[in-house]
Amino acid sequence: MEELMGFVTGNKNRQKLLALLESRGQLEGARIAKNMHIAKISADKILEELTAKELIVEESGVYKLTELGTTVARTVLSI
After folding, report:
1. Cα angle vertex 3, ends 7, 42, to 5°?
2. Which of 40, 43, 41, 35 is nearest to 11 (CA)?
3. pLDDT value, residue 71
4. Please, which residues have CB within 8 angstroms of residue 49's CB and are 6 or more apart in sequence?
5. How distant, in Å, are the alpha carbons of 31, 45, 60 from that of 16?
6. pTM of the entire structure?
7. Given this model, what pLDDT does residue 79 score?
8. Pick from 77, 49, 55: which is nearest to 67 by CA?
């Protein structure tokens, strides 16, 4: 868990993305980029990283937090 916390807190956009999905539930990649005010390609890279760490899952272009992702997001938001 500490490793995941370090991974997420090491990048502000990772933190923002987890917080966004925590508050909205699920969003398409393009909406995530728009809400975060970053380029779609940047959002795609972060989404790929978070998916690889099993913090989020993608189904038909829609992303949402996993149970682990929810735990990490809530922990990061409480810091």
Report:
1. 15
2. 43
3. 96
4. 14
5. 13, 14, 22
6. 0.93
7. 77
8. 55
Mean pLDDT of 61-76: 96
25 with 32: CB under 8 angstroms?
A: no
- For 17-78, the DSSP string reads HHHHHHHHSEEEHHHHHHHHTS-HHHHHHHHHHHHHTTSEEEETTEEEE-HHHHHHHHHHHT
Identify the pLDDT of residue 1. 85
Residues forming beta bridges with residue 59, ordered by sequence position: 62
Residue 55 has a CB neighbour count (10 Å cut-off) of 24
